[in-house]
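hey so i finally got around to running the thing on that chain from the lab meeting. sorry it took forever, my laptop kept dying and i had to restart like 3 times. anyway pasting the input first so we r on the same page abt which one it is
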Amino acid sequence: MNITFDKKTAVDGVLTIQIEPADYEEKVKKTLKEYAAKASMPGFRPGKVPFGMVQKMYGPKAKLDEVNNLMQDNLFKYIREQKINMLGEPLPCEDQATQDIDTQDSFEFKFDIALAPEFKIELTSKDKVNYYDIEVSDKDIDEQVKQMTSQAGQMKDANSYKDGDVLRGTLTELNAEGQPLEGGLVVEKASIMPKYMKDKEQKKLFTRCKKEQEITFTPATAYDSDTEVAGLLKINKEEVENHKGAFLLKVEEISHFEPAAVDQALFDRYFGEGTVKDEADFREKVKAQIQKGQEADSEYKFLQDVRAYALKKVGKLEFPEAALKRIMLANNKDKGEAYVDEHFDASIEELKWHLVKEQLAADHDVKINDDDVKKAAIDATRFQFAQYGMNNLPEDILKQYSENLLKDQNQVNSLIERCIDEKLTAALKNVVNLTHKTVSRDEFIKLVSGEKQK
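ok and heres what got predicted. didnt touch it at all, straight out
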């Protein structure tokens, strides 16, 4: 077997694999003997079929399998051993000659290889990058406390309706005379929140209503979405067209949401029993919690600024555009060339940052292990529960739920990237010259949103 690599340009090359009979014949004979030992044909006892017949029947397939295995195994082995910095996968050359397994004994396979551009990026204390420290205002604390009291609140029974309450009762479809429609819909225990009705006149019908009151309204007018109407009437969306008339609601229950009080029970719920003694201490804990969350935002912005700075420092790089477009098209066969053309420049920008980040990570010895990924999964799980106000969950519960994330390879890949970003950020903060800037939360949001719009 002979393998050669011809570098056509700085970023394009052709890898050629030549396979001769001596490379595969012995293996093919061994495979055919194994077939012969098991072969069964009419007129012959099992295992007694003449070798010539076995060779005629199974020889081409055995030959094809072995040639293909040799080609695949040695293709990637050569790339690894020669340390070819390849982008994507090898692509069969477009002028590749057709290989005929029945008539050929020697085979030649040619592959286009897209090469990563060569460059060097180094960041030192001479490089200045902004780092934004986000202030925590009293308004931020107030909003977080309000969210906590809302999460810890509960629905309570009420006698009269206030905006935001939930009404429950029986819905009855009416005819043109305002009487129950024969064969019409009757929905028991229907739940209605007038606050979310789009039609103001329909919403007014529920003002200060009380238990046992009967209210006639038109769901199809009250809501601007057939999906909402279908959900209320418990029917399919396609059936809404047949039920656009009036309905009678007999109010049986009124549920009023009441936020939790800012008291010891709330302190214990969010920070553990006895950890917080009074409201002032609670607000300090909330402030620290917000600051910790905002640190992650500051780190994210810092890495984005490092990215912009590093890419500018590296300058324009040459990429094997034709080969990369072929790879992108192969990975998006259902979307076609128009999709590739539209997204190619953005893809190249992401690829450039990937190569830069890869080099920076190697230079600063950023390495990820299984424990890092498992910890990231637990942190992600903790954050998800915190979104629903569920804090201070036991570690064994977090671990149990985080294991579901680790079963999804896409989630694992995302967690690995997050770990790399966190470790690289920590490393670079100790390398570059940080220009600290203190900003409000609103100012920071404008900075990030402005960046995303570019």
